[in-house]
Design brief:
The chain is about 35% helix and about 15% strand. By secondary structure, the chain is of the alpha/beta class. It folds into 2 domains: about 10-210, Rossmann fold, CATH 3.40.50.970; about 220-339, 3-Layer(aba) Sandwich (Rossmann fold). The strands form 3 sheets. The protein has a 4-stranded parallel beta sheet with strand order 2-1-3-4, with helices on one face. It has a 4-stranded parallel beta sheet with strand order 8-7-9-10, with helices on both faces. Strands 5-6 form a two-stranded antiparallel sheet.
Length: about 350
Amino acid sequence: MSKFQIDWQEVARFMLLSRELDLVEEKLLAPQGKIIYQFSAKGHELSQVLLAQTLDHPHDAAAVYYHSRPYLLTSGLSPATALAAGMARANTPSQGRDTGVVYNIPRQTGLTVLPASGNVGAQFTPAAGWAQASLYYRNVLSESDWMGTIVVAHDGDGSTATNGFWAALNIATTLNLPMLFFIEDNHYGLSVPTDLQTPGGNIAANPTSFQNLRVIVGDELTVISWGETVHRGLAAALNFPGQVTVLDLRTILPWDKETVLASVRRTGKALIVHEDTLTAGFGAEISASIAAEAFTYLDAPIQCLATPDIPIPYNVPMMEAILPSVEKIRVTIEELLEY
């Protein structure tokens, strides 16, 4: 996995494609009895497509679960195959033996998708095995082309109550494996709410006592944004895994002050990014609130990236020149993390 440039057109294409496949199954195929189970990926599309774009090493791999369709589409699964597999048609990856997108795909245009089953938590063991094998190829067989590879175990929060999840954590942390646990917080494991299966209801907090485990929750810097610059902030933050929390306010009247303050008190640093002008922009209100109510928690000055105090040009290249770019945000994040 290396630094990469996000192809936002491809991101949008695969997100919309996945959503459309869900609608076809929900409105046509399921009512007609052509599919038995419909596992929607709605709400999961963006994170999964970005994850698939990030994994660009020839030996990167992933083990998936039944909500992983956006990820698989980005990794080379064709829409026709995705629909046919759900209908248990011949010449599809699972030959109809399992549900949804739970199957193995050898490397095509994307990475290798490891064998899995529909059982919750079943993908963690093969993922840990691939990660351990990658270290063997690199350290024992001295095959340098395995340097920098990573494997992803992809599942929802229900899987964190399974023995497969905890066993994989033991293996990954004791052997220091290159393994990413990519857990989607659905707030439910099938029909069970998170607070009834996860102590404290916080999936990320519970495994933090494991040695050599880096929980992917930003703990060094809070980026506060809304509107279009949220996407730029997310793209920039991907260069600093596990260090940056990106908060999307969504509205500024009202604005979620308590969430912002809680995050800044936890990370100790704040970066506000918005499209409005620097002078009299809403970022000033946020900055003032942080300074007034979280000042003693700060480890660095509050920073704000915004447009200069000029009208926004209609010319696209000129507009891009004055807006906070992904690179400007990335550089500022790096400076704050090093402060």
